[in-house]
Amino acid sequence: MEAIEELAVQPCTSSLYLRPFRLSYRQNGTKKFWDFMRTHDSVSILIFNTSRQCFVVVKQFRPAVYMCEIERHQPQIFENQDKESFPSLENPLPAVVGVTYELCAGIVDKPGLSLEEIACEEVLEECGYRVSIADLRRITSYRSGVGVTGSRQTLFYAEVNDQMRTSGGGGQPEEGELIEVVEIPLEESMKFAYDETFPKTMGVIFSFMWFHNNIAPKLPKK
User: Which of 18, 24, 80, 180 could form a disulfide with 59 if both were Cys (CB 3.0 to 4.6 A apart)?
Assistant: First the structure.
C-alpha cells in the first residue's frame, strides 16, 4: 500500500467522478458566484463484529490527503495551476501521510440498485462479510463537502460475526482499489476516534459515538 512512486501532478481535463461548475446568482440583491463540483452520492457502513467485539474499518491511501500534506510542506507545488505542466515532486513525502482510516463505503453509481443493495456489495467487496439488506440499519444521511460538492452520504449500521466472513475483502483491484481491513476493539474505539495520530474521516468519529450512545448500553455485560 505504501509503495508509491513515479508521482506526477497534471491538470485534470476530464473525470469520471468530478465535474466542475460555476453558479452565478443574486442573493438579497447582491450578485454572487460560487465554484463547485458535482460528484456521486455515497453510502457508508459502520460494521461491528459481535464475535470479537470490534469495529471493522478500512485503511487506504488517499491521493487528495497526500497532496494536501505535500502542499503543506511544499507550498509552491500548485503555483503553476493555470499552466499545462507542474513542477515534478522532488523529495516526495512517504506514502503513509496519505493513508486514512475510514468506514466501509462506496459511491452510488448503479441506478438499478438501492442504497441498501450498494451497501451490501461494499461490505462484501471491501471487508469480506456477506450481509443482507435485513442486516442493515439506517442511521442517518448527511451532506459532505458542503462548500465544494454538497454530496449526500447515507450511513448504515451492520452487525456481523466470524461465520459471515467469506473472503479477506480488500476491494476490487481491477478498479484500482487497494484496501486493508482493520479491526478496532470496542474498548479502545473512543480513544482511537480522538487520536489524531491515526488520520480518519469524521464518519468514523460520528459513528463510534452513535454506537456508544445507542448500541453499547444494550450489549450484554461482561
Answer: 180
